[in-house]
Amino acid sequence: MGNPKAFLSIPRKEAGYRPVLDRIADYGEVEQTLNSEDRMLQASRCMDCGVPFCHWGCPVGNIMPEWQDAVYRGKWQEAYNILTATMNFPEFTGRVCPALCEKSCVLKISGSPVTIRENEAAVAERAFQEGYVVPRIPKRRTGKKVAVIGSGPSGLAAADMLNRRGHSVTVFEKDEHAGGLLRFGIPDFKLNKGVIDRRLNVMKIEGVEFRTGVMAGRDIGIEELLSGYDAVCIAIGAGKPRDLSIEGRQLKGIHFALEFLQQQNRIVSGASVPGSERLSARGKNVLVIGGGDTGSDCVGTSVRHRAAQVTQIEIMPKPPETCNPDTPWPLWPNVLRTSSSHLEGCERRWNLASRRFIGDAGGNVTGVEVVGVEWTKSSDGRLTMKETDETGILKADMVLLSMGFVHPVHEGLLDCLNVKYDSRGNVATAGAHATSVDKVFVAGDAATGASLVVRAIDSGRKAAAAIDNYLKPKN
User: Is 452 among the domain residues?
Assistant: First the structure.
């Protein structure tokens, strides 16, 4: 730690966002960047705590104090080397991670944690700009072949780690381009897709093969997978969205959030979508049901479509704006989160449940009847909901369902493999990421349910270690 008192003399400084009127006119990344001098000063605020709770809070176990110190000293390549010892894709998490590390930073107690996430993105960008990121082709191959099904963060992490160990890895992706939800779920204004392509190009040179537009279980059969590869890693994510089965669900204009977001991401990438299939929020009253990150992405995309009005509702109560005694430091705090999209124009409401969809004579949605709810907590901490007398109708020409995902899609690959599921419908594991089918492993949301990009990367790394151990010669 070069400056042990920096946290006292240097205030937290964030790069901030581009001006609202500028950013809603395009799909460029909304976050700005600090210059190198400011970034180094921000890194100097790290206190190199005796117990680094940031390291404890990070799912992949990034060793923040070490690479923060390297950044402070201007040792950018050293910082990148330390960071990538535990994180495969810091350019992804530096942009889209909610920064669990910052929430457990000791300086968070005073409300000004180290800007760890922004520092991470800066290190990754500096590494690519100055050529520290070079393909590292394995010096020897084991002769073992591994199929990775899915190219989201867990699949990419598993493929990267397995390739480093000398196995020949083929990644199968059902969509036309690799990246999974990084590419088709997260809007470009949060993650430019050139950032993904840049990393994929490195992985390809290193020897990872990508086969896109291939649906495992259909375009490549189960027998071919099991006989042609020494191990299979399922990393298909949790793709089954939670539906809202209430009266009027069949009305036109009601869509799952990912339908909306995936189409827009394809349009931004240059894909042509027929007008009859185009999901446009232009001039419409948009209602987003669900208060999470995906719902926030729907808000930002609707604003860029030039929606007349955007409303986001959540069935849960509004969280506290700063501190929540139920989730004290260093735990992940359940507090109000306001994204860049919310700042662009959105009405947010809480404690509302949807009772029925309302439509016109042509079968188009025109509104949603909602009812207020109250939550009470029992002695064992369980929340119970009951409806109130408050009812109303929210006008809506487009409704986007963003209530999360229940489990991976069972139809097709998983059912054909005949894997076992757990009580929540996720792929069950028998320890060390192994499924009930021999030489078939699982990583990421397909095993855990929908979670964070950083947790998916951690799961992919651990699945790769389990597969590598499985493939090692047994003496």
Answer: yes
* Position 188 in a domain: yes
Domain boundary pick from 403, 429, 453: 403
Cα 66 to the center of its chain, rounded Å: 26
Tokens of 462: 């651990």
Q: Closest Cα to residue 287, out of 239, 320, 251, 321?
A: 251
With contact defined as beta carbons under 8 Å apart, do 18 and 343 qualify?
A: no
For the chain of 475 residues, list the mean pLDDT of each consecutive stretch of 10: 85 98 98 97 95 96 96 97 98 98 96 97 98 96 98 98 98 98 98 98 98 97 97 98 98 98 98 94 98 96 98 97 92 96 97 98 98 91 92 98 97 97 96 95 97 98 98 84
Q: Are 293 and 95 in contact (CB under 8 A)?
A: no
CB-based contacts of 60: which residues, under 8 Å, 6+ apart? 86, 87, 454, 457, 458, 461
CA dihedral for 91, 300, 186, 454, sign (positive or negative): positive
Is position 259 within any domain?
yes
Amino acid letter for position 313: I
Distance separating the N- and C-terminal Cα atoms of the chain: 46
Backbone φ and ψ for 29, nearest 5 degrees, come out as -60, 135
Return all residues near 394 (Cβ < 8 A) that are at least 6 apart.
Answer: 287, 311, 313, 367, 368, 370
